[in-house]
Design a protein that fits this description.
This protein is α/β, with parallel strands linked by helices. It is built from eleven helices and seven strands.
Length: 254
Amino acid sequence: MRYLRRWPLLLLLLGLVHFVQAQVEIPKNVLFVGNSYTYFWNLPQLTGLMIQSQELPTQTRQSTAGGVNWAQHWRGERGLNTMSLIKDGDFDAVVLQNHSRSAIDRPDSLLHFGQLLNDLIQAKGAKVYLYLSWAREWDPYMQKPITEQFKALAEKTGATLVPVGPAWERARTLRPGFPLYDEDGSHPSILGTYLTACVFYGVFTGRSPVGLPRSLRTKDENGESLIVTLQSQQNALFCQKVAEEILEKWKKDN
C-alpha cells in the first residue's frame, strides 16, 4: 500500500519534468539578418521590447541593407559585415530574411545560401530562424510558393520557420483592406511590423502574444523616451489573436 500511495506523487513529478523539458528556450541575444523587410519600423527592436515587456532578458541587433539577399550577406557586399557578426558575435539565435522575391525568382539560390548560412550559424552554437515573409499586396498568389520554398529549406536544415506570411494572409482574409502594407504594397506599415513582431514573439517565447502592450517605448542616448509603436487597442488585439491562431495552426500542421 505504501508504494501505491507514492504513485500519484511520482506521476506528478514526471509530469513536471515533461513540462519543464517542453518549455521553449528563449533566446537572449538575437541577430536579425535581412533587408528593408527587417529594418522597416524597427522590427528587431520592437520584437525585443515585446519580449522585455514580459520581464524576459532578450537583446536584438541587426545586419541589414535595402534590397539585399542572402548571397550578398554571404559575400559581404554593400558594406555588410554579417559574416563577422555571426562568427565573432555572442548570439544564441539568428533570424534569416531573404529578398522578398527570392523564393519565386531564385529558389536555387535561396536553398544554397540558406544552407550555407544555416551551417555556419549552427556551427557557432546558435539557433536559426527562417523569416517566412508575405506576398505583395496586389498578388496574394505569391504566398504559396514563398511558403513552400521556406518549408523545403527548413526541412533540409532543421531551422525553425517563423510564419509571418501566413499570418498576414490570415489577417487579410479576416479583415480585407487591413493596412498591413506601406503605400508601395510591398513593405510593411507600422501595423504590419506590429503583426510581424507578434509572430516572432510567439515563436521565440512559446507564449501567446495576446495581452502584449499596444504601445512600446525605449530611450534614446540622452535618456529621453521614444515611442517605437503605438496601436489602437482594437488593431493590437486583432494582430495578437491572428498571430496566436496561426502559430497554433502551424504547430498542428507542421
